[in-house]
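Notes continue from the previous slide.

Worked example: a multi-chain complex. Inputs as given:
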Amino acid sequence: MSTLAALSAMGSPSFWVSLFTLIGVYAAVTMLLNVEAGWGGMWDLGIVGLLAIGSYTYTIVTNPPGEFDVDLAPGWPVWAGILAAMVMTGIVAFLVGLPALRARREYFLIITFAFAEVFRQLAINLRDVTQGTVGFSSVARPFESFFERDALRAVLLAVTWGAVLLVYALTRRISRSGYGRALRAMRDNEPVALSLGIRVSRLRLQTFVLVGVAVGGVAPLYMWWLRYANPSVFEPQFTFTAWTALVLGGIASRFGAVLGVAVLLLFTELIELIDVPLEFRNVLVAVHPLAIGLLLVLVLRFRPEGLLSERGTFGERSRRPTALDVTGAAVAARLRRLSPRGDGATR
Amino acid sequence: MTASETNGSGALLSTRGLHKAFGGNVAVHDVSLDLYPDRITALIGPNGAGKTTLFNIVTGYERPDAGEITFDGQAVTGMAPWEISRRGVVRTFQTPVGFPTMTVWESLQVAGASHAVLTGMLSRRGRHETDELSHRAEEILQNLGLDRLIDTPVDELAAGDRKLAELARQLMARPRLLLLDEPAAGVNPGAISRLSEQIRDVHRSGIALMIIDHNLSFVLDVADYVHTMANGQIIAEGTPEETAANPVVRQVYMGVEA
């Protein structure tokens, strides 16, 4: 009986549309996180702070005047809201980056984490602009007048994955460019990077701002999916999920961020679907983080570099491997090692 | 004997009165030397003599407490390492860790890329640059006999090859002056004479060279002019023959009583 109920919930198209939209949003953010953390070695634990800036900026400037009791409601069109979110997030990333990028590794991590919390506290306290903990109960979405509810969701799913494709194209370009190589060089060995004329401090700031602007562009997609904004949705949980997905999928690989997000979110969302009696609901909720932890431990135990690896993404000189090649090679290597007669066993 | 006897005219790199102390520890004391592009210069001295600190100061990794550095007639004292590198002063490092996640080919691409990296990515020129870099990388690797290792990850190279790969990578940065910090360390004795030849080839290609090394026979073989350091000071300079015969050098460096 319970399996049947779960299956019927899974069968509903709106569930899948919603889940895959969310996967798209996370995938875009995680790919951008990979640019700065995976390739640039900047362990940003405050990516949700940038997302919050972009989300609030978009929501505030696009809300129709008079709908909420706030001081600022210019009622801009959606496209202007997206631009505003990108510009604002870029500016904030620049201002945060100036002091934060003087620190390295865990110190940078602590500072970015703190900034993300500062932004959340600001969202709570700047009531005249953000409506405090109440937040905004609706968000302006594009194409609202053209489609009815379910169709609009499907359209926004497509738009979201269009953006995912765009971000992927951007990261692919980065990974093949001198810029991407300079990032990895500075991460691998800063003194040597400097000795080659790479202006490390500026490269860090440029990258942090670039990621900020792009996250600002993704933020409206998140808002369209969520359809409300309040400080609770910008808790550190978002950052942790993105990081977990990145480590799962393979930090510093190119496609790993998308794969990691898909695996992680499908896994956690499908756990939610297990149909348990009401009195066990709490247990299921408690098991949730345990299950993510277990997934992470398993991947790191058997594939420490993540599902896809940096070496699989780079290093090919003549032929340029696609994500499919890399996945295929990873699967093949796995199979070889599993088979008793494979070279893995004979060596 | 501490200062160079010439007035520095014609010198590519000159230091005057360089001084650096770490706490109470004087690492470099009043070092003035001139480096001429037409000869391979070596810097020898016992451990802790201040050789690497001097390299660090010249390449911007350490700020001198006092003194001046000029490169090609321009003051470069206190400039950042990347700035000095872009002017043509490139160094290698004692431990050739390099970029462990990259292949030899990739790490050479890093070195040769134009410096406007972010905008270069977006421009058409940035994309065309790759082909030219690729050719140059292959050429440099071929000259050093490393072409068979072009796709090998840097962290899988044998110690000697790693040294050569480091040399190849720094050559990609188009140095006018290359400072080699212990190029022969970790290289197996049989390969050292080949290394000397390769270093001479680099010099013949028009790159000024300065070498730090512990292996005295290697240094005396490859260098045309030798500065000897001890306790942060230059205590002698001269041709390899003069250096080998100098009783002061023999005493402080080789532990031979004069």
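Summary box: The first helix of chain A runs from residue 2 to 11. The domain at 10-338 of chain A is CATH 1.10.3470 (ABC transporter involved in vitamin B12 uptake, BtuC).
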